[in-house]
C-alpha cells in the first residue's frame, strides 16, 4: 500500500529553487506547509498538483497532510478532480478541506469516502453546498459513518442547490430521518441526476418518504437503493412512485427482502414507467411466480433494456425468456446509438470544413444549405 513517506527519489530531492517563481499550482506552498507541520511531502501530491485530476487515495494523510494539501489548493485553480478516499482524515480535517473549497473555483468532483465527518465537517459542507458560488458537481461520501444528524443537515442544504449532479452516500448509517429530508429535496431540487443510497438503513417508512419526493421529480435519472431494507411495503411504495415519476432511467433495488407480495406492486410501476431503462432486483426472494410477474411487466414496457434478477430463486426458464425479450432491444439501442454518433461526427466535420473555408476566404459568403 502506498504511503506518503514513500516518495520517489527524484521528488524527495525537489528543492524550492527548482520550482517556478509564480506558484500557480501551489507546490511551493505545499512544501512550506509540510515543513511547518513537520511532515514529509507526498510525491504523489507534488506530481498531481499540475494535473486536472488529483488521485491520492489510501495514503494516510491524516489531519496534517490534509492541511498542507488544502493550503496548496487555495492557490491551485488547475485541479478539478479531487479523490481522497481512505486517508484517515478526521472531522476537523474534512472541515478545513471543505472550507478551502469555498475559495476554490475549479474542483468539481470530490471523493472523501472512508474518512470521518462529524459536526465540523458537516457545517463546512453545508456552507459549501449553500454557497451560490459552488462549482461542485459530484460528491462521494461513502463509508463515512454518517448518521441522520449529518444526513438531515445535508438534505436541508440541497433544496436550493442546482450545481450538484451526483451524490454518493452509500454504506453509511442513514435512516428514516435522512430519507424524509431527501424526499423533500427531490420535490424541489432541479440539479441532482444521480443519487446512491445503497447500504443504509432507510427501511420501508424511509423509502416511502423518498417515493413521495420522486413522484414530481423530473431530473433524477440514476437511483441506488440496494440493501436498504425496503421489504415488501417499501417496494410497494416505490412501485406507486414509478407510475408517476417521469425521470428515472436506472434503478438498483438489490438485496431488499422483496418477495412476491412486494413485487406485484413494484411490477405495476415497472410496466407503467415512461422512462425506466434498467432495473436491478438481484438477491431478492422472487421465486418462480415473482419471475413471471416481472417478465410480464418487462414485456409491457418496451423501453426497458436491462432487468437483472440474479440469485432470486427464479427458474432458468424465466431468466432465459427475459434475456430473449431484452437482447433484441439492446441491439436496437446500440444500433441507434451508433447512428447518432456517426451523425454527430458528420456534423462536426461539416462545421470544421465551413470554419476552414471561412478562414481561407473570410469575405466569401457561405453557400446556402
Automatic annotation (TrEMBL):
It is found in: Cytoplasm, Cytoskeleton, Cilium axoneme. GO terms for cellular component: axoneme. Gene3D superfamilies: Ribonuclease Inhibitor (3.80.10.10). Its main location: cytoplasm. InterPro entries: Leu-rich_rpt (IPR001611), LRR-containing (IPR052394), LRR_dom_sf (IPR032675). Residues 340-359 have a biased composition (Low complexity). Residues 336-369 are annotated as: Disordered. SMART domains: LRR_RI. Signal peptide: none annotated. It comes from the Eukaryota. Pfam families: LRR_6. This is Uncharacterized protein. It comes from Pleodorina starrii.
